[in-house]
Structure formats: C-alpha cells, structure tokens
Amino acid sequence: MVLTVTMVGYGASIALVRNQGAGVLAGFLAMAGAAALLSHATDAALPRPAIAPGVPRGLVGLAIGAVGAAGAGVLVAKLVAIGPLYAGLLGLGVGLVTMLLDLGQAYAVAGRLAAGEQLAGSTIRPLLGPCLALAMTILGAWTYGAVVL
Questions:
Q1: Is residue 84 part of a domain?
Q2: Cβ neighbourhood burial of 56 (10 Å; 0-12, 13-18, 19+)
C-alpha cells in the first residue's frame, strides 16, 4: 500500500507542474522537507523523551520539525501565493501531516518487530516514512493547486 500511495503521489507532481504549479509544488516540498529533516536530525541528537518503546522518534524532534515547517512556510510564502501568516499556518499543517505519516511508518516497523517478525536489514526501511510523507505532500500540493490555480 505504501508503494501505491507513493507512486500516485509522485505521479501527481507531473500534472501539477504542467499546470503552472511548480511554485506551489516547490513550496509544499520545502515545508515537508524542513519538517522531516529537522525532526530526524533532532531525533538523532536528542532521542528522548521517546514517544513509545521501540519507536525511534522523540517528542522534541516532532516539536522542532513542526516549528521548522512553519518557518519554511513563511519563507516560501511567495511561491504558494498567500500571505506570510497563512503560509506559516499552512507550513505548520504540512509539517504535522508529514511527521505523522513518518511516525506512522516508524510505528508499523516497531509493531512488526514487537510481533516477533524477523526483518531483513535494509537501507530502504528508514526512508519509507519520509518518502510516504513527501508523496502525500505532493497530493496535498496538487489539491491546493487545483483549488487556487
């Protein structure tokens, strides 16, 4: 299911860019990217207090990621074509959705491990959360672009 949602999301970016929505797409991806980057960097430095046992995400990382996404929203207000206050609120919303999708993927992996399933070592597994979050962000940008453009 993750693969299906991700492929549909990345495919929607083509339609958005062809309809003069490259600025909207870049703005949404900047907000989501800031949230994912800041939250993961903070979790690497300050993993405690953890949200749940077995989940490698901390509360501090989620808070800093949300604030970073709001700041990125203010910075890309011109690309999204709205005022800085609304762009900051939009960035906060995009950041929270990004981090919740990423957190959901971390919970899915932790649940599989808690159930006793042996997961093969993979370099892809840590990237599934951010890839899913960016795909859903593209779908959100496509929806925003369809309404505004």
A1: yes
A2: middle
Can you tell me the distance from the alpha carbon of 134 to that of 128, in angstroms, rounded to the nearest whole number? 10
Domain membership of residue 12 (yes or no) is: no
- Number of domains forming the structure of the chain: 1
Residue 121, in any domain of the structure: yes
Contact assessment for residue 20 and residue 142, using Cβ atoms and an 8 Å cutoff: no
Tens digit of pLDDT at every position of the chain (149 positions):
667 877 888 888 888 888 888 888 889 999 999 999 999 899 888 877 878 877 888 888 889 999 999 999 999 998 887 889 999 999 999 999 988 888 888 888 888 788 888 777 777 777 788 888 888 888 888 888 888 77
CB 32 within 8 A of CB 134: yes
Three-class secondary structure of residue 29 per DSSP? helix
95 CB contacts (<8 Å, ≥6 apart)?
A: 31, 32, 34, 35, 65, 66, 68, 69, 70, 72, 73
Domain span holding position 142: 21-148
52 in a structural domain: yes
State both tokens at 140: 């959100």
Both structure tokens of 86: 């609304």
